[in-house]
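call fold target=L-mandelate dehydrogenase
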Amino acid sequence: MPVERVLSLDEMQAAAESILSDRSRDYYAAGALDSYTREANRTAFHKCRLLPRVMRDVSSVSPQTTIFGQPSALPIYISPASNALLGHPEGELNLTRGAARTGLVQGISAASSFSLTDILDERDRLKEDESPYDLALAYQVYVQTERSRTEVLVKEAVERGVQALLLTADTNVLGCRETTDRIKGVTGNVSPGARMGPFTEYPAYHDAKQCWADLPWLKRLAGDIPIYLKGVCTIEDVRLARDHGLAGCILSNHGGRQLDQARTAFDSLRAIHDEDPELLKQIDIYIDGGIRRGTDVLLALAYGAKGVGLGRPFLWAQTAYGEQGVIRAVRIMESEIVMAMRLLGITRIDQINASMAECIQEVWR
Ligand code: FNR
């Protein structure tokens, strides 16, 4: 199917899965244990409804905003996700090119198939192109058992001018994804990460000792670059992140790949909105997980998110069509977001607020 005939992110998934090997398809799709949380990430949005206002001039609409302090064409960003090479020979470079051409922020996984150096080189090369946007990058950090390895990577990211660091906090040990294990014939309980076998090697990537006391060390390395804590679920941890002087939190359950039965990011956001709305003014909150439609994005923004991340959709998009797939996925989201804004009766992202949504099912308590 030609790329321009793909009309939704679900169709993008279907296009990718029709060409992926079983192993790679399952690696991208995998959720932990029974995938309850992965599924709930999508259905969480079904519990709320939007409340459109009518009789307003919506002839001119701008979905522009800032993400991690950087200008962004849309209130979405590319969530850092590993092993893009499983889908396409150009792997993460497709994401870099697609983000540069559409004005999105790209999150770079610490477990990318291409090295950080390769991705930064590609960004520099694109700067010399006529790309209409300055590409902003957010480097995702795994605190490794061997801290000096993390230091080398963070120093490179900082020296070469990435705009933000995303410290992943929900992966002190790797979640149990049986589909991925089964393909590799792994059984039994092995050390954290050793399950990954032929994929990017993880063992050293996850230090079970990672804790709040590591933050001063990372902040020293980061200098002026803001740090966002990724993988937060509870209001208590958001408060701790604020108290530790972090720029923000990404409410996330790692696409349902870590703790099955963990609460969805959207429900965590609504819990904060209900219990302590002031907190949303004290620290920037982003969410990811299961976001596939422009209306999902607007619901998240209505409850106070600054922006949202999409993980699998961009892996699928680059799998199916390389850079063009990434651009198409962004265009699909752009048209859905702009359409939803118009139908809601708003013309700018900062007009979205909680009066535009209601919850019809309080199942999260
Ligand atoms: C991820 N995610 C992830 N997160 C992270 O901090 N570092 C990583 O290396 C990865 N790798 C990764 C691989 C794959 C295949 C997936 C699907 C996800 C999690 C990712 O950043 C994000 O939290 C989720 O993907 C969001 O959920 P959706 O959009 O995939 O539903």
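return ok
The first strand starts at residue 48 and ends at 50. Residues 20 and 87 are 6 Å apart (CA to CA).
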